[in-house]
Design goal:
The structure holds 2 protein chains of 2 kinds. Chain A is an alpha/beta fold. Helices cover 29% and strands 20% of the residues of chain A. By secondary structure, chain B is an all-beta fold. Chain B is built from no helices and 10 strands. The two termini of chain B are 20 Å apart. The chains are: A alpha/beta, B mainly beta.
């Protein structure tokens, strides 16, 4: 008889399907983000082809580039999306041809097969057929490169001409005013030329356009309406110098920006024979599917329901629809809310719903204040009850509250909503029906936000944002979300207090500052001067942590001893039966065989249960309080020190073996991990802190699950922050790239110290980052750019910690008074707790459960040392 | 018939051995008792060392504090607070710990046992 031996590969997994995304703009980014997030089984490999050299960026915020100066600030997400397995981004890669029959696309010199393809090529800026529009000095306003070239041109011309540059913008719409703002910011004398009778004719009416014009002219921008540009002329140097209008008038122009509209970039679709609309745009059905069932079109290149949707919001919705469809769903694009709210040249402009009062019998309620530069209009149904739309110029603060009310009864005198800024509209927030869509970016209704408070237990804005994603994209609805949350909390009777506990009316961060700027060095001074009562199990450990960070005392020094939770008090971890576990520090998880033997021998001698922890060290369970000093004497003698596994403090720096052994490692992750662990050991903080260092992108140390994660690159180290496991697992976000070791250490120093100073009690880094105003970007500015000017202070605070570190256990063993606290009974110091009972399991002991105890304890007599008795 | 109540006092430690606002465990007639010396007033309180919620003998290792004007200790296991003067659990009305009489004689802390 023979037995067949089957040698097989791992169980056959279905082939992963290939998705090609042509175009790498905002909508393409949203598609990849949505697909990656939902495609839990990774059924799709995604390749994205973008012709720009940058990863997807926030085109809507293009003008902010003039303020920030760094195009990378506009990048969408933290860049990690493009490093996900199965996702590739080809930058500067033009797709030249799609072979639909073979399902192959051609880009540069390569070809790529696809199962499905998504066209997300967006649109071109159009240039009108004006003579001279191709002269040097003429620009469009569409990409970061356009804007960068424009800026360079203005700066160069100003230097060459030795005077202010004269700029002209053709087009007085949204993009034109953006461009005018950019030119003005560069110091140019700017004229806006609009063919229609007023500015922003698509968004506001004649009166609104008039109000807008007055405000803009006050800012120093010239405006010409009802004006057609006919010709541009060059000077002797061949560069543009003059603009001529159809009425024969002329103005000087050293730079010209065309902002006259956009046209879908549909030529690839035309050449591949896909159906294209008469006025451009790839024809797609409500599922975003084109005339080829393997090809979708989304964003500004798509024509759905007979029109091209020229805003990013509808494009995002289409991206979500396609992500759903790729995973077998049946989502459809049902048109979109074209409401807009913008800040142009510092002027708020918003329009929503039926802004032009096209509805039969509609009534217009207008509030205009020319001196204040405000024009507001609500369009109401014929009975003046239902809001149909509106436009707001100069003050758009009511937009957030009004937009969700379109199609609904306003419930009160509409004029109340148009009152000057600062006056609360009647019933805002509380009056919103549950089904109203408050966050249109993420499709969150008022009801879902209320539900987050009542059913999910969220007690603040940050919690609700994390729970519902409301307000996490464009942020325009945040004030409304906050209002809804506040109202709901008040209704639920939840008082939102920032007080630490009944003894201190301060937050942890405020208490930290109080101690930092005062001479206070004990809890009794602190509570006497700034609190009431005796304190409690909440404020005492907080004070202990703050005093430790700022005054560096030993946990058992003086009054400190009465502030420590039992874990910190005995420097071990309390277990369910009242015994403790002991964790010696093993920096970076590196331990000698001799060290392992020493730990093992201690465990043998004291009968301790041993287990390897998730932090790459060894936990010894079942040590009684009176045994701790003897156990630690042995461990300290063997070269170990406290692992602070019991503290709200640095736990471990997990690492992979790195370059020193690993054939893939690109940096010495183990040495870095050991150095970092030795640097931050003993640092008391609002919650535990964990770090991880991986020696290459394979990420064996799971660094992105840590508060600070470090991943080696060819050039140095990438730093991630805000990751954790636990109840709500979080992936750390990219914080800085390609740092040298010195830069990295300084960045971690500042990040951790800023966190220690400002976070709330028991708040880990991820929720802390969410709670900081400005979020990750604000913390990055503080840490990397020293935006608050506290960098040197944070550096000094960390240096002080490093300089004053001492091993808590070694110090305790050297101090008889401290050792005196480690007794089981004050009148029988070495008598074990007679109630402890254990059973053996897999060769080690564990606490007996109820049933097991009944058997073990019955009849057992445990000798107790005699005590001194006196009789009264 | 008359009943006489005898309190047996057990001397457990010197008062100086108690760290203010911290507890120690003591054995009194085979019972495990948690003894606390409050900061400020210096009052000495004693309650059961046994934590009724977790079943472990740990009450002496809890943090001392106050709620309103009541001196408290919180179980180190799951943080339920108890009134040090009455033994009443402030987070669960059905749970009360035994309160042990205390006195300080010649600088020694004594716990009253006997009939409870």
């Amino acid at each position: 008889m023979t037995i067949d031996q089957h040698v097989t590969d791992s169980p056959a997994t279905p082939r992963r399907k290939k998705l090609a995304v042509v175009g790498a703009g905002m909508v393409a980014h949203r598609l990849v983000e949505a697909l990656v997030e939902r495609d839990a089984d990774q059924t799709w490999d995604i390749e994205v082809f973008g012709d720009e050299t940058r990863p997807p960026y926030d085109r809507v915020a293009l003008t902010s580039f003039f303020n920030d100066r760094d195009p990378d600030d506009l990048l969408l997400g933290d860049g990690s999306l493009w490093k996900r397995p199965g996702v590739r981004l080809y930058r500067g890669s033009v797709v030249s041809r799609i072979d639909r029959e073979a399902k192959v696309l051609h880009a540069r010199n390569t070809t790529f097969e696809y199962d499905r393809l998504v066209l997300a090529t967006g649109s071109y800026a159009t240039v009108p057929p004006v003579e001279g529009s191709d002269l040097p000095g003429c620009f469009v306003y569409r990409t970061v490169d356009d804007v960068a070239e424009l800026r360079q041109w203005v700066l160069d011309r100003e230097a060459a001409l030795g005077r202010k540059v004269k700029g002209a913008v053709v087009g007085g719409g949204l993009l034109g005013l953006e461009a005018a703002g950019a030119l003005t910011a560069l110091g140019a004398d700017t004229t806006v030329v609009e063919f229609a009778e007023w500015l922003m004719p698509l968004q506001v009416d004649r009166a609104g356009g008039g109000a807008l014009r007055r405000i803009i002219e006050q800012l120093g921008v010239s405006v010409r309406t009802s004006t057609a540009t006919s010709k541009l002329k060059a000077g002797r140097d061949g560069k543009v110098t003059r603009m001529q209008f159809a009425d024969g008038e002329r103005i000087a122009a050293d730079v010209v920006v065309f902002a006259t509209g956009v046209r879908p970039r549909d030529e690839l679709a035309r050449e591949s024979g896909l159906a294209v609309g008469e006025r451009g745009g790839v024809v797609a059905d409500p599922g975003c599917l084109t005339s080829d069932e393997s090809i979708f079109a989304i964003g500004e290149v798509a024509q759905i329901a007979g029109r091209v949707w020229g805003l990013v919001g509808p494009g995002y919705t289409m991206a979500e629809v396609v992500a759903d469809r790729l995973l077998g769903g049946t989502a459809t694009f049902e048109g979109a809310d074209l409401s807009t709210k913008l800040k142009l040249l510092g002027v708020d402009v918003a329009s929503f719903g039926d802004a032009f009062a096209a509805t039969n019998g509609s009534l217009e309620v207008v509030y205009a204040d020319p001196t204040a530069g405000v024009y507001k209009k609500l369009v109401m149904s014929d009975d003046a009850q239902t809001l149909l739309g509106g436009m707001l110029v100069g003050d758009a603060s009511a937009y957030t509250n009004l937009r969700p009310m379109v199609g609904r009864a306003l419930g009160s005198d509409p004029t109340g909503w148009l009152l000057p800024e600062g006056m609360e509209p009647p019933g805002a927030g509380a009056a919103l029906p549950d089904d109203v869509n408050v966050c249109s970016c993420n499709n969150v209704t008022a009801g879902q936000i209320r539900c987050a408070v009542t059913d999910e237990g969220c007690t603040d804005l940050a919690g609700v944002k994390a729970c519902t994603k409301a307000g996490t994209s464009c942020g325009s609805c945040v004030s409304l979300v906050k209002k809804l949350v506040d109202v709901q909390l008040a209704e639920a009777g939840i008082e939102v207090s920032t007080a630490l506990c009944e003894h201190f009316a301060f937050t942890r961060a405020q208490l930290f500052d109080i101690v930092r700027i005062s001479e206070i060095s004990t809890f009794s001074e602190l509570i006497e001067q700034h609190g009431t009562g005796r304190g409690c199990d909440i404020c005492r450990p907080v004070a202990a942590s703050i005093l430790s960070t700022l005054r560096h005392g030993h946990v058992l020094d003086g009054e400190n001893a009465a502030l420590q939770d039992t874990n910190d008090h005995v420097m071990a971890n309390l277990q369910k039966d009242g015994t403790y576990s002991v964790v010696p520090r093993i920096p970076g998880g590196e331990v000698t065989p001799e060290g392992l033997v020493a730990i093992g021998q201690v465990a043998v001698d004291y009968g301790l249960y041993t287990k390897i922890t998730g932090g790459q060290r060894i936990d010894l369970f079942g040590a009684r309080i009176e045994q701790l000093p003897a156990i630690w004497r042995r461990l300290v003698d063997a070269g170990f020190e406290s692992g602070q596994a019991y503290g709200k403090s640095l736990r471990t720096v997990k690492s992979c073996v790195g370059q020193s052994w690993c054939r893939y490692g690109v940096q010495d992750s183990t040495t870095l991990a050991i150095d970092l662990e030795n640097r931050y050991r003993g640092l008391r903080s609002p919650h535990k802190i964990k770090l991880g260092v991986s020696g290459c992108a394979r990420e064996c140390a799971e660094a992105r699950g840590k508060d600070v994660g470090i991943i080696a690159t060819d050039q140095g180290w990438n730093m991630y922050v805000g990751g954790n496991g636990g109840f709500t697992p979080r992936h750390a976000q990219l914080f800085a790239e390609d740092l040298t070791t010195d830069e990295l250490v300084q960045a971690i120093d500042r990040f951790l110290m800023y966190y220690v100073r400002t976070a709330d009690r028991l708040q880990r880094t991820a929720p802390w980052l969410e709670s900081v105003e400005g979020g990750l970007d604000a913390v990055r500015a503080v840490v990397l750019d020293d935006s608050l000017g506290i960098g040197a202070d944070l550096d000094a605070a960390m240096a002080s910690h490093v300089d004053t570190y001492e091993d808590e256990w070694a110090a305790t063993l050297a101090d008889e008074a401290k050792l005196a606290q480690f007794v089981s009974f004050v009148n029988a110091p070495d008598t074990p707790d007679p109630d402890l009972a254990y059973v053996e399991e897999r060769g080690q002991r564990r606490p007996a459960d109820e049933a097991e105890r009944a058997v073990l304890i019955a009849g057992a007599s445990i000798p107790v040392r005699p005590t001194t008795e006196v009789t009264a | 018939m008359t009943t006489t109540t005898t309190t047996t006092w057990t001397r457990v430690c010197a008062l100086d051995a108690l760290v203010p606002d911290r507890g120690v465990a003591a054995l009194v007639d085979g019972h495990q008792v948690a003894v606390f010396r409050l900061g400020g007033s210096g009052d000495v309180h004693a309650i059961d060392h046994h934590d009724p919620f977790s079943g472990a003998n740990v009450m002496a290792r809890g943090l001392v504090g106050s709620r309103q004007d009541v001196p408290t200790v919180a179980s180190p296991m799951h943080k339920q607070s108890f009134d040090l003067t009455t033994g009443q659990c402030l987070d669960d009305a059905d749970v009360t710990l035994r309160v042990w009489p205390t006195r300080v004689v010649d600088g020694w802390v004594e716990i009253g046992g006997g009939t409870a």
